[in-house]
Amino acid sequence: MHSWEAFGAGLAVVASIVSNLGVNIQKYSHLSEALRPTAARRPYIRCPVWWSGLALVVLGSLGDFAAFGFATQSLVAALGGGATLVANVVTAQRLNGERLDQTDVGGVLFVIAGVVIIACIAEPNVEYPLPELELRFVRTPFVVYITCVGVCAVSMLATIKGSVANRLKNQVDWSNKRQKKLLKQFDLRVQRLEQRLLDMEVKLLQVSTSASVLPVGLVDPPAMSTDLRELIDSTSAEDADVNGEAVVGKSTSRVPYYYAVCSGIVGAMTVLLAKCSAITIALTLKGDNQFKYGLTYIFLGGMFVCILVQTHFLNMATSSGDIMTVFPIFQACWITFSVVGGAVFYQNDNEPISTTDKVFYPVALLAIALGVGLLVQRSSSSVEAEAGRSCIGNGRMKLSTSDDDRDLLLSADASVYSPLLLAGAHEDDGPHQSV
């Protein structure tokens, strides 16, 4: 390994640690937001803490981008991925309080072993001019690789779309929106009912005491209106919390893992485009201007688009799953697709694959696959049990409060009780004699 390649490898390690710290801060933002009432929760892009984590992620990405100018794509991806896995074990425990299981340790060790093997057999760094890069993008092996990657990403997204957890979440969101709409309509009916009662009292007072001044209390709506609206808001929030916890308790699918895989696939494309962009910038600095080609801007624009998509998928994964498991899966897919993509992209047609690559690349990828297999076995039974107990407890509390409040709600509903009847009298109880 040359001195500049060693510098690039060290820069990749530091950048990956900084980026992992940013991802864990974003996970902390997701956890903090989940503790807020459902009605007060915000999208992650509106949370200041999340943006501070994104700043570190961007800083780490810039470091990775600079590292691509000094070292090969496989070396940067392998060493950076291994360093961030070790950093994630420490940061996830300290910052987010996630436990470390034996399967997590074994999975991380297998992934790191595969990463070390890839780093040892990484090919030397070569800078190709832009016309040569353009020809490599249309080579048959790379076209086949891109097609397979696209099919894999689409299948993952289709699995997420059709998963039970996703359908349950959509049903709960629809139910909460419908409930809020009905409660707003109910609130309007209550206000109209109060106004009718107020008008009737005013008319009675005008008939009986036409010369007297009306009491001030009759000008404003009764205090019951404010109390009832507070009851409606609290009931809506409690129902939404219970429904959300029910989804967490029932959802045992692997949707966070699917999001992590999608993020890793898109991240591998980010690596390839970043490497090509770094090559064009390096050649331009050496005097060979590459910005006269339109493909250079496609590289840069595609890289930024892939970064945005990768960040979104990773946040979807970390917000719905444990970062101790989700992040290593993302890193494993990111490293695997980056290494395979780099090998396919930079392999020359007239050069046969060496025996070392034929042996050690499959061994490294197998070690990474075994590590991912151990990571997805992470037991979440205690988390589900806790969510179930919380859901049951909230359900019982909601049931008791709803029994106590039913009379208050029904007595204010004009469709159930008539304001002209005596207090506590139902319309179906038969005729009553007016007072």
Automatic annotation (TrEMBL):
Keyword set for this entry? Coiled coil, Membrane, Transmembrane, Transmembrane helix
- Give GO cellular component annotations, separated by semicolons: membrane
Record membrane topology: Multi-pass membrane protein
Coiled coil where?
176-203
Q: Which domain of life is it from?
A: Eukaryota
Entry GO MF terms = magnesium ion transmembrane transporter activity
Principal location: membrane
Species classification = Eukaryota, Sar, Stramenopiles, Oomycota, Peronosporomycetes
Give the signal peptide as a residue range, or say none if absent: none
Membrane-traversing stretches? 6-23, 44-62, 68-91, 103-122, 142-160, 257-283, 295-314, 326-347, 359-376
Compartments, as annotated in UniProt: Membrane
Q: What species is this protein from?
A: Peronospora matthiolae
Q: How is this protein named in the record? A: Magnesium transporter
